[in-house]
Amino acid sequence: MAWHQRDETGSEIVPSQSHGPNSSPQTSESGQVTPSSGSSPNTVDRRHSLPFTPADSKPRAVDSDDVGDGHGGEMYELREFDGAGTDADETDDDDEDSRMIGGRRRKRNARRQSESTVASFQLYTPDEERVIVRKFDRRLVVFLAFCYMLSFVDRSNIGNARIAGLEEDLQSRPPREDYFEWALRAFYIAYIAFEWMSLLWRLVPAHIYVSLVVLSWGVVASLQAVVTSYPLLIALRVLLGIGEAGFTGVPFYLSFFFKRHELAFRTALFISAAPLASAFAGFLAWLILWVGENLPIASWRLLFLLEGFPSILVATIAWSVIPDSPETAAYLTPRERKIARLRLRQEKVQQHSHEQSSSSSSHKIKSPSSTSGLKAKDVLAAFKDPKAWLTAFMFFLANMAYSTLPAFLPTILQEMGHSELQAEALSVPPNILAFVMVLLVAKMSDHMKSRSPFIIMYALLSASGYLLLALARPSEGIISPGIRYFAVYPAAVGFFCVVVLIIAWSVNNQPDESQRGGGFALLQVIGQCGPLLGAQLYPDRDAPFFETGMWTCAAAMFGVAMLALVLRVYLARLNRKLDEDEGTGAEEEVQGLVEPGGRVKRGFRYML
User: Which of 26, 62, 316, 531 is 20 to 30 Å from the Cα of 332, by its Cα?
Assistant: First the structure.
């Protein structure tokens, strides 16, 4: 392995120190060029080079101003050669990228195997990478989570509006008992029919797409405040479903910015806005009901108006906040934009090697332009993938609970004997607990780089909560009213955690971007049929205990646990086959790890 430095014309130059007029380059026994005195400081091209980290020192945090600032310090461009020369086909298409992708230094003494090793290999430090990840968390993920919170409020506040007088004001004469169920059903029919819009995240600039989608549902949600009949409300719910369907591709979009083992926590930050939204909507509904008692406008109309209008304001902010890709984030420095792109390069190589594991070209580093975009063939291939269908059916079952209990919880609590205000207030604590637990569970799942154990555990937890609710009829003398209320907690915590992990698991286990898009679309199309069925589980005739809905949701969550176990066994089998094909005994998923001897293992492995 030789280390070379080149000027802008491609000619080799030797590194020099910025001090010492009489220095000359030295070569170590290992063949590594080391700086010594003798060369002019101007010999080194500082505009594109990066700081060199000595082999026996720790990586130094490098500020973006260090690159080419002329402040002294050794500046190197590092390249890796395999001993066979440089193949033109293997040259990176992007000159900027090729100057930052350096090679590995071969060392006599084995270093501790860690992600910081790879960070050094890629010429940026772990500290720099953490800074970029934190910026994406604060500026991108939190903003998208806030948008989703508004989306979930606008979607689920119909349950709060129902007990605030919507049913009495909009019901026809003679009344139709299924109007409210149709208002829920209409939303999910449109939501399912337009799930294909999740692919548009890769085809339309994200800042334009997000702004238009958020604006659309904000306008429609606010217009619900002026409807005069259930048919008009149902029509607006159809439009609301179309607008919010376009936003479901956020986890797919986040995969453009984060590594596989980082995705569950970021998906959790996004999805956890749902229980937070339910808690916020419950508190806001309680506040609006309390204030609205002395106002001339109906409380439910004020509820729709106040909870829908903020989305319109947020849509204008999204235009300047949402980046189209990591390298276009305005809040990153030029160096950080390069690192944000390069930190995902290793996974692109893994994904490419999964497609062409028998070809030596599978180890070539492609430019971003060669791997971006969606390929129709690969998108459609996801529809023939058993693991995509298994996760989709898991999502279908989990969604029966996830999308219905928040909407029906105020009604269920009111049927327990609580007043309207008490029902709104009591719906807040279960959602707050679910919000906290979703973040903790997702963080643990990312740390362990595993999904199925947590999905199985929390699916069973949710099923146990639903079983307690199903056995709550007083005539049977099994469950007291207090226990019945507290059974809502494990039910809600369980299905919220399960939904987050299923989404992350689906995105994790598609080997390339096109298949991720196709798999995610399938996940949403099949999965969102769950709420369509779930809307039928709590008819008024089953009040106040809704045993049918509780038994059905308990069975659904047990089904999720079983399918997760089946999928884990299937993925483990696929990983063993990949091990055999590569001729290695490695059993762990590679996420930037370096094997003993310095060889980077590039093989793709499914996350279990």
Answer: 316
* Residue corresponding to tokens 């100057």: 99
0.70 exceeded by the pTM? Answer: no
CA atoms within 13 A on the CB side of 309: 7
Residue 202 exposed, middle or buried by CB count within 10 Å (0-12, 13-18, 19+): buried
Cis peptide before 41 (omega within 30 of 0): no
CA distance 528 to 197: 14
State the chain's mean pLDDT as an integer: 74
Measured CA distances, 350 to 110, 189, 355, 449, 512 (Å) = 24, 38, 9, 16, 9
Provide the β-strand partners of residue 75: 51
Q: How many beta carbons lie within 10 A of that of residue 112, not counting itself?
A: 7
Q: Hey, what domains does the chain have and what are their CATH numbers?
A: 1-90 (no CATH), 127-581 (1.20.1250.20)
The answer for residues whose C-beta is within 8 angstroms of residue 191's C-beta and 6 or more apart is: 241, 242, 244, 245, 528, 531
Q: Hey, which of 15-29, 77-91, 106-120, 222-236 has the most confident mean pLDDT?
A: 222-236
Distances (CA, A) of 90 to 205, 342, 363: 30, 17, 9
Of the candidates 124, 85, 117, 75, the residue with the CA atom closest to the CA atom of residue 101: 124
pLDDT, tens only, 452-494: 999 999 999 999 999 988 887 755 556 677 788 888 999 989 9
Residues in the chain: 608
C-beta separation of 266 from 500 below 8 A:
no
How would you label 77-109 residue by residue, b for 16+ Cβ within 10 Å and e otherwise? bbbbeeeeeeeeeeebeeeebbbbbbbbbeeee
At position 123, the amino acid (one-letter code) is L
Going by their DSSP bridges, the two strands 26-27 and 5-6 should be labelled as: unpaired
103 vs 32: CA distance, rounded Å: 12
Bridge-partner residues for 76, per DSSP?
50
Task: Please report the pLDDT score of residue 478 as a whole number.
Answer: 64
CA angle 409, 415, 418 (to 5 degrees): 90
Q: Look at residue 75 and give its three-state secondary structure.
A: strand
CA distance 178 to 525: 24
Type of residue found at 601: K
Contact 590, 605 (CB under 8 A): yes
Is the backbone peptide bond immediately before 174 cis, with ω within 30 degrees of 0? yes
Each residue of 332-344: pLDDT tens digit? Answer: 999 999 988 888 8
